[in-house]
Design brief:
By secondary structure, the chain is mainly beta. Among the domains are: about 1-75, no CATH class; about 100-185, no CATH class; about 200-345, no CATH class; about 515-535 and about 625-650, no CATH class; about 540-625. It contains 2 helices and 32 strands. The protein has a 4-stranded parallel β-sheet, with no helix packed on it. The protein has a 4-stranded parallel β-sheet with strand order 11-14-17-20, with no helix packed on it. A 3-stranded mixed β-sheet has the order 1-2-4, with no helix packed on it.
Length: about 675
């Protein structure tokens, strides 16, 4: 049936109409499924055409049966043409080639279905010729709820749920553009329903060496914005997978960028609580490529190039793998432009247990598990900084698991003459904190090894510092109660000017002070020990032998610095004589001008002499040499060796609760 307002023309002998025009706001062509409307044309002109010169629709097709699943308007072509085509000829303004609308809460505004179960089928293809055009543009108008700008789905193994192609070779064009105004909406949402296999929610690919497989930008400058959010349900799925097939050039698998100071360039979240889950997996084939490159361009604030979170006890918040076996590859590279920024920041928020803020591993025999480099040539830069909030946490934990060889738990290296190879800070003011702890299970390993390769300057292999009045700059503890172990062992290859251990200040010991050498009579099996002489005064001792002259006199010369560093001189003379006479010896002139004079009762007598003097250099004059001192408040009621007084070890001044002995969980 046909209703018109204005004029109409019929096709003779057919009962059909064409070329219908409405001059009002009514409908030029109105049809419903109670009687057929059909037209046939043998020319290039339309078989049915409705024209409305006013504001009403040109054609309206209605199915009145609410139980019908048929189509009010059905277009079909038996050739390579277009079944249904919408064309807006206006060259300016917000025009629409096709506009579709539904009122159902579960309805679909536009539904495109590619029935072929194989081949490169397309559910929807959007194409524009304008350099600034949009291939497919979807807008979800509600500002709340979980709505979708564009939803595309394909059941074909090689199909595309949504495929957008921008053919222009220049300009800022978009193959697919998704936008949502809702705080919880999705501009583009990719969903792979398969719960197994290497499922991909969104796949982005570019053949350009400098192109971006996926570029996402969150333009909001405030709030916890997310440029790219990837989520999968499969334990072996990928939230976001970026792959650049180019094997050269500064290619980027996934590039994330935000303008917000609290935003995320890339945020990967894997909800699986078990299995080998991955929040973000980045992979690059190029020797100089980046598996994942995160850049936070804001130069202030606590921004993050990459933030990865995983709830799985075996998961990875961020895992970067560079599969190239040569070249300066980067599994994960973090870079911050801000002077206070962080290139890579790892935080384990759980306040107990052997958690790890960041763990790095290399399988190469000459590889580096963790490499930190501060390029700035000025300022207080840090190659690697480790921080733990837990009282039993580790700021930095280095562990060499090899049980043989010259392994290194942590190695720190600097090029600057005034640099620090390793700097560890435990900021907690209580508890058994550890600034740097190194552990090695190898018999020849090093728990901590510091190397300053510079051959000039006052370099430091390992620097220990404590600001506490009762703290230790470096504390060495050999926990074994048997064997010849060492709390601290110092060694120097310089036999003339070097010191194995040197104290810049007082040196003390609660036990004996000895020298130990290989026993001269049995060097392979025994040591020989000699002990220091103790006294309540800091004494210097000078000895020698002299023979008196024909008159029985002898002048003994002391070092030219003697009187400058000594006081309270004490003399001792011993005569060496084989005759039957009893020979006497005495000091006839005390020390003056660094010399003294002796006399014997017989000429030409050999005399052994000894002078003791109290040390009186500027150090002793300034600091003194106390003998009896009161214990500080923090040490009162405690003992250096409580076992000597029948007290438990907890009463010891140096008693420290046992440090954690567990090893980190192996990912």
């Amino acid at each position: 049936m046909v209703r018109t307002q204005g004029w109409q023309s019929s096709i003779p002998g057919t009962g059909r109409y064409m070329g219908l025009i409405a001059l009002s706001s009514l409908i030029a062509v109105y049809g419903w499924a109670q009687g057929p409307i059909s037209a046939t044309s043998n020319s290039s002109t339309p078989a049915v055409q409705g024209t409305n010169t006013n504001t009403g629709p040109a054609g309206l097709f209605i199915i009145n049966n609410p139980n019908s699943t048929n189509s009010a308007l059905f277009g079909r072509t038996n050739g390579p043409g277009i079944a249904v085509r919408g064309l807006s000829t206006i060259s300016a303004g917000q025009t629409f080639g096709g506009y579709f609308e539904v009122y159902s809460t579960s309805g679909i505004g536009v539904f495109s279905f590619a029935r072929a179960t194989s081949g490169n089928t397309f559910g929807v293809i959007g194409r524009v010729s304008s350099p600034a055009g949009v291939g497919v543009y979807g807008v979800a108008l509600p500002t709340t709820g979980t709505n979708y700008g564009v939803w595309g789905q394909s059941n074909s193994p090689a199909g595309r749920g949504v495929y957008g192609l921008a053919t222009a070779g220049t300009g800022t064009n978009s193959g697919v553009w998704g936008q949502s105004n809702s705080p919880e909406g999705r501009g583009v949402y990719g969903f792979n329903a398969s719960t197994t296999g290497n499922a991909v929610g969104v796949w982005a690919e570019t053949p350009s060496p400098t192109g971006r497989a996926l570029f996402a930008q969150a333009t909001s400058t405030i709030g916890n914005t997310t440029a790219v959010w990837g989520q999968v349900t499969s334990p072996s799925g990928r939230g976001v997978f970026g792959f650049v097939p180019s094997t050269s050039g500064p290619s980027t698998g996934v590039w994330g960028q935000v303008a917000s100071a609290a935003g995320r360039g890339v945020y990967g979240y894997n909800t699986a609580t078990s299995g080998d889950s991955t929040g973000v997996l980045g992979e690059a084939v190029s020797p100089t490529g980046r598996g994942v490159y995160g850049l936070a361009t804001n130069t202030v604030g606590v921004n993050m190039g990459v933030l990865g979170v995983s709830n799985s006890n075996q998961g990875r918040g961020v895992m970067g793998r560079a599969v190239a076996t040569s070249g300066v590859t980067n599994g994960v590279r973090g870079e911050a432009i801000s002077p206070d920024g962080i290139g890579v920041f790892g935080i384990a928020t759980f306040s107990t247990g052997n958690n790890i803020g960041g763990r790095f591993e290399s399988n190469s025999s000459s590889g580096t598990g963790a490499y930190g480099r501060a390029n700035a040539s000025t300022g207080t830069t840090t190659g690697v900084i480790g921080e733990a909030v837990s009282p039993n946490g580790r700021g930095v934990l280095g562990r060499a698991i090899a049980t043989t060889g010259t392994t290194i738990g942590v190695r720190g290296e600097v090029v600057s003459p005034a640099g620090t190879a390793i700097w560890g800070v435990a900021s907690a003011t209580s508890g058994t904190t550890v600034g740097v702890r190194g552990q090695s299970d190898s018999p020849a390993g090093r728990g901590v090894f510091g190397l300053a390769p510079s051959t000039t300057g006052i370099t430091t292999g390992v620097w220990g510092q404590s600001d506490s009045p009762t703290g230790r700059g470096v504390y060495g503890f050999a926990s074994s109660s048997t064997g010849v172990n060492y709390g601290v062992l110092g060694q120097t290859n310089s036999t003339t000017d070097g010191f194995g251990v040197y104290a810049l200040g007082n040196m003390g010991a609660s036990g004996t002070k000895t020298f130990r050498i290989d026993h001269p009579l049995d060097p392979e099996n025994k040591y020989l020990l000699h002990y220091c002489i103790e006294g309540p005064e800091p004494l210097n001792i000078y000895t020698g032998t002299v023979t008196t002259d024909a008159r029985g006199y002898a002048v003994i010369e002391l070092p030219p610095y003697f009187e400058a560093i000594n006081r309270d001189f004490r003399y001792q003379l011993t005569v060496i004589d084989s005759s039957d006479e009893f020979v006497l010896a005495k000091v006839v002139q005390k020390i003056q001008n660094n010399r003294f004079v002796i006399r014997t009762s017989k000429p030409f007598v050999e005399v052994c002499w000894e002078v003791k003097a109290v040390r009186n250099d500027p150090w002793v004059q300034y600091y003194g040499a106390p003998v009896e001192v009161d214990k500080p408040e923090s040490e009162r009621g405690k003992y250096q060796h409580p076992e000597l007084y029948g007290q438990p070890q907890e009463a010891g001044i140096t008693f420290t609760p046992a440090l954690p002995t567990g090893t980190p969980n192996t990912p």
